[in-house]
Design a protein that fits this description.
Elements (H helix, E strand, L loop, with lengths): L2 E8 L1 E2 L2 E2 L3 H11 L3 E8 L6 E6 L4 E6 L7 H18 L2 E7 L1 H12 L3 E8 L10 H17 L2 E4 L2 H9 L7 E3 L21 E5 L6 H11 L9 E5 L5 H9 L7 E5 L3 H7 L5 E4 L7 H4 L3 H8 L4 E4 L4 H8 L2 E4 L3 H13 L1 H17 L2 H8 L5
Parallel strand pairs: 1-4, 1-7, 7-8, 8-9, 9-10, 11-12, 11-14, 12-13, 14-15, 15-16
Antiparallel strand pairs: 2-3, 4-5, 5-6
């Protein structure tokens, strides 16, 4: 029996641990009946670490550690020690580690003979991870050490793949593994069960410029499209204030707050809409190298996706004509919504292309190519 260890950091939302690439990989392993252990270290104080075991048939979950927050360096040293101690007592053939610190622990484990192979899964990348120059330099030195010493480097975007190529990672071990979902976990609805004028937006409800832009764009289209509706999935510090403003405005019957949904509920909700919004600005450098998981889930759900050009996923959406790639401006957003709402045939074409892109980049197909050969 092949045994796998998945390592990642995680964050919580009101609906529980936020779904990320490591959870997609865990679901794949369950479908393949491959045993694994998942260790999740919390990003923020107040949460315990997670330990999930899957023996090929049944999944068992528990937490460990305390919510006491150690100084950052001590916290990282504890996590490396814990990973190595776990490997010392549990034979694992393969470790898939998300982020450089987990990959560093896994590399140490391989050099000590505690595992046979290590994959470094780069789920985000930025030249400026820390504002502190010393920490940022140290971070990239660890990252560089890991890409040179692991067996394979997986990357969620083609932009990171290219960056890894520039850093000297050979094409043989430099792999593209996007944040794409499997067709086995979600599906589109028939067109007659869809509200084509319902715009789905998975977002943190904050005072961010992107969110403000969306609200203004929807407000400006009410007269032209009286059936228009915005469904907000998520929560945030601005939520209560926004609800009050919406309740006392023309948008009262046009904005729906669905709250924070668990992943299964999310994939059951998205297909009911007609358009997906993935609006990013260039405020953070990691966005340029990122792969939008929500955009991937829109595509799986058959939603033509409006996405800003700052994020890597827009490259695929443009290539497949699966939506519209725009600049992060209110004018461009309004024009994109109009294009999709005024012509149903045009919308259907984009919908079919969205599903074709999701099918082409089904994570099961990708992992069959890159993961199974490692076993």
């Amino acid at each position: 029996m092949i045994s796998v260890l998945l390592l990642s950091h995680f964050n919580y939302s009101k609906a529980g641990p936020i779904h990320g690439p490591v959870h997609t990989l865990a679901s794949y392993l369950q479908r393949k009946k491959i045993s694994y252990t998942y260790i999740g270290y919390p990003l923020y104080v107040g949460e315990k670490s997670l330990l999930t075991r899957f023996n090929g048939k049944k999944e068992n979950n528990k937490t460990f550690g305390t919510s006491f927050k150690l100084p950052l360096v001590l916290q990282y040293l504890f996590e490396i020690y814990h990973t190595l101690n776990f490997l010392r007592h549990n034979d694992k053939d393969l470790v898939v580690a998300v982020d450089p610190l987990n990959a560093l622990a896994a590399v140490f484990g391989e050099k000590l003979g505690l595992t046979k192979k290590v994959v470094f899964y780069t789920v985000d990348y930025t030249p400026n991870r820390f504002s502190n120059n010393f920490l940022n330099t140290l971070y990239h030195k660890i990252d560089n050490f890991c890409i040179k010493n692991v067996d394979e480097v997986w990357n969620v975007s083609n932009r990171i793949v290219e960056k890894r190529r520039e850093q000297g990672v050979s094409n043989f071990k430099n792999k593209y593994v996007p944040n794409a979902p499997s067709f086995k976990v979600g599906k589109a609805l028939p067109i007659n069960k869809i509200d084509r004028f319902n715009i789905m937006m998975v977002t943190g409800i904050t005072h961010s410029p992107a969110f403000t832009m969306v609200i203004k764009a929807i407000s400006g289209l009410l007269d032209k499209y009286p059936k228009i509706k915005l469904s907000l999935i998520g929560s945030g510090s601005y939520e209560i204030e926004l609800k009050d403003k919406i309740n006392h405005s023309r948008l009262d019957n046009h904005v729906e707050f669905l709250g924070q949904l668990d992943h299964e509920s999310l994939l059951n909700t998205l297909p009911k809409g007609g358009i997906g919004l993935a609006i990013y600005t260039s405020d953070y450098s990691w966005v340029n190298y990122g792969d939008s998981m929500k955009a991937r889930e829109y595509l799986l759900s058959g939603l033509p996706t409006i996405i800003t050009d700052v994020v890597s996923t827009g490259d695929d959406i443009k290539k497949y004509d699966a939506g519209l790639v725009i600049k992060p401006t209110e004018k461009d957003l309004k024009n994109a919504i109009i294009k999709l709402m005024q012509n149903k045939k045009y919308w259907i074409k984009k919908r079919n292309n969205a599903l074709a892109l999701a099918q082409e980049q089904d994570i099961d197909k990708i992992l069959d190519r890159v993961f199974l050969p490692l076993l």
